[in-house]
Amino acid sequence: MLDYVIPLCLVLMSLSVLLTVVRLIKGPDLPDRVLALDTLYINALALIVLFGIWLGSGLFFEAALLIAVMGFVSTVAVAKYLLRGDIIE
Amino acid sequence: MMARCWPHPLLSLFLLATWLLLVNDLGIGHWLLGGFLGWAIPQLTQAFWVRTPRVSRPLKLVGFLLMVVGDIAVANLQVARLILSPTRRLHPAFVEVPMELDDELALTILASVITLTPGTVSADLSDDRRTLLVHGLDVGDEAELAASIKSRYEAPLKEIFACSTT
Amino acid sequence: MPLNPWIEALVALFLVAGSLFALIGAIGLYRLPDFFTRLHAPTKATTLGVGGMVIASMIYFSARNGSLSLHELLITLFLFITAPVSAHVLAKAAMQQKLRLHDSTRGKPWQQ
Question: Where are the transmembrane segments (chain C) (predicted)?
Fold first, then answer.
């Protein structure tokens, strides 16, 4: 059963990544783009976990955790740049 | 003595649990190593803590977190319905909620919980920490939203952290 | 080791639920009218989407290896702690830039 369900989920996740990329291109403002990037990294996280289940490999866990950490830090850094015009004060 | 060895008991427990999850192994060696880390890291970071948050009712904290997880799951369906229905029918609003909490950690938890529970995002806290600005996705009645936030999330947090109600 | 069909069904259920939530979050991001309403969709729906995936992965690896695998919980925990923070910072940035609000919005953001 998983052989059918996982490709279906991959399609659903790819659709959501596409919609997010459309928002990333459309904007209209900088915070919208940052929000789209934030959503994009969370979606990538879900895709990696899904891919790990598909291959039956636990190795992808570390990659997912690293993406979560880096994505959060970069979102906050860019948002802080928008807010103050500077990252490290 | 107790307070000097274990300045932050909850933080130590949290570090131990994180270590055990990270290595994904419940062997006795990892319990010992995790216990050591849970003891050493609060000691080393002692200088950075401005003041120790006091949790007077840890059991109630667990109950509160479980309730929040339940709320997140149930009310997400509500937001899903709002997103898929026509956008004309949305009534977004900025609502000011007066705060009675004065503890930094409690305020952080409250703001995070408000953001995680669907339909509301906490946008800003006033400089005197007395008012929280909340953005609601679909608000019927502003006063009702503020009252429900206060009774459902603020009241239990006030009990857990034993805040003085000033 | 072949999986018990019931466990497989449970994993499939969580996977589908997770990806549906992530998709709904992305749809919200795509079609809601202004920034502050768009902020609602990804911070919650997407976090829950990843949560569903992670639970599925937990059940799958626990059943397949015959030993409890809980470390995926760390991802969910981390996301649940960080998602409100990034939403809050983004909301502050948006208020400072005085983004356009949807016409039916009541109340006003504060002046920064």
Answer: 6-30, 42-61, 73-91
pLDDT digits (tens, 9 = 90+) for B6-52: 667 777 888 888 888 888 777 888 888 888 888 888 888 877 776 66
**β-bridge pairing B131-136 and B120-125:** antiparallel
Indicate whether A22 belongs to any domain.
yes
C59 in a domain, yes or no? Answer: yes
Mean pLDDT, range C91-107, rounded to an integer: 74
User: What is the average pLDDT score of chain B?
Assistant: 78
Domain count, chain A: 1
pLDDT of residue A18: 92
Quickly list H helices, B6-154.
9-23, 28-44, 58-84, 104-116, 142-149
Question: Of A12, A34, A52, which has the smallest distance from its Cβ to C90's Cβ?
Answer: A34
CATH code at position A79: 1.10.287
Per-residue 3-state assignment (H helix, E strand, C coil) for chain A: CHHHHHHHHHHHHHHHHHHHHHHHHHCCCHHHHHHHHHHHHHHHHHHHHHHHHHHCCCCHHHHHHHHHHHHHHHHHHHHHHHHHCCCCC
Predicted interface score ipTM higher than 0.95: no
Range of the domain at A12: 2-84
B151 in reach of chain C (CB within 8 A): no
Inter-chain CB pairs, B–C, below 8 Å:
116
Partners of residue C47 in chain A, C-beta under 8 Å: 42
Total domains present in chain C: 1
